[in-house]
Amino acid sequence: YPLCGPVAVANSLLAATGVVASNGDIERLYRAAGGHGDSGSDMEALMAAAATEGLAGYRLASYPHATAWGPGLVLLLSLEDVPDVWHVAATDVGGRVISWGETTTISELSARVEDAWSLTWHGEE
Question: How far apart are CA 50 and CA 87, in angstroms?
Answer without folding.
Answer: 18
